[in-house]
Amino acid sequence: MTRDEALALMREHTRSPSLRQHMLAVEAAMRAYAAKHAEDAEAWGLVGLLHDFDYERFPNPEHSSTEGHPAWGVTLLRERGLPEPMCRAILGHATYSGVPRDAPMARALFAVDELCGFLVACALVRPSKSFADLEVSSVKKKLKDKAFARGVNRDEVRQGADELAVPLDEHIAFVIQALRPAEGALGLGAAAAPVG
Hints:
The protein is mostly helical. 57% of the residues lie in helices and 0% in strands. It contains 9 helices and no strands. The chain has helices at residues 3-13, 17-36, 41-50, 71-79, 84-92, 104-124, 136-144, 154-164, 168-179.
């Protein structure tokens, strides 16, 4: 699957600009972690781009391991020939799937998923609406504020860094750096474009 095909699939199934923004952010973070570990940036990026493409239509509030998000999406991705390691990484980002995160790609996806959502929220409340002046200390302060971005699972943010065996501060700093070049595509900062 090419990035253009993945992007078309994501757009077909996702109308929400904020959910599209989230998947683009996770894609950017995944590409950065792939480069850091000399892995396939295209494969890792596609996993980031597609990990939530079925969430809007099949949200799965029951946390079924076989129905709804991400199981529904992975079934479609398998039919379209997405390699099994990529499918397992997407399944593993949902703790309720029961699929272990036993590969670097899977651990990275879990680690950046909640954090990207939180970092976008942090950027949006800044006067600059940018990652350019977002500091780790500011992010950590907001992590302690349970009322801020309350949909973000703070335990999973910390668990993700633990599973990568990276200190939380270092993980936050790395993902901020990864998102800075992508902020225009995310609809943030001075170079903001509509999220698509």
